[in-house]
Every structure is written in C-alpha cells, then in structure tokens.
Design goal:
about 90 residues; elongated; mainly alpha; 2 strands; single chain
Length: about 90
Amino acid sequence: MYVFRPMYKKIDELCCIDEDAFGGIPGLDLDVKKEECVRRNYVPSFIVMRVLPKNREDIRQLLEELDMDHYDPFEYLIRTPMRAGQDNLIVERA
C-alpha cells in the first residue's frame, strides 16, 4: 500500500513563482486536494516511470550495489541518485 500526502502549500508556492514549474504527479489527481492519496495492490505510475524494470538483465547486480536483497521499486527509487528526465519530482524518505 502506498500513501501519499501532497504538500499543497509548497505546490501552490511554487506555482505562484512559475506556473509551469510543477506539472503534477502522474497518476494522482491533485485538483481534488485530498489530504491522503492511497494506492493499494499496485505500484503508482510515477514510481514505475522512475525505476528499472524488475526483468532487466543486470537487475540483481544493480540491487546488490544499492545493498538491496530483493526488488522493491519504492526502496530502489529512494536509494538511487538517478532522476527522471521528464520532471523535477524528488522522492525522499520521511
């Protein structure tokens, strides 16, 4: 289960500075202003877009380099320094 708590105040502040600076979060409708967005039984699209597929040929070696013993897309996203080219979203551990 994934629970997202968007920082609407920060999003609004950023959009006041540059309305094109924030393009949203793929798979989440932020217009409804929910305090929490819950996703059960599937990995949200914005995470899938940012991680290597679990069937990649060298995935085991890449996981070992990050000190991971199994494939966990969210944990991979947090541990890797890679960034997606399509936006400026950063995922960090709370």
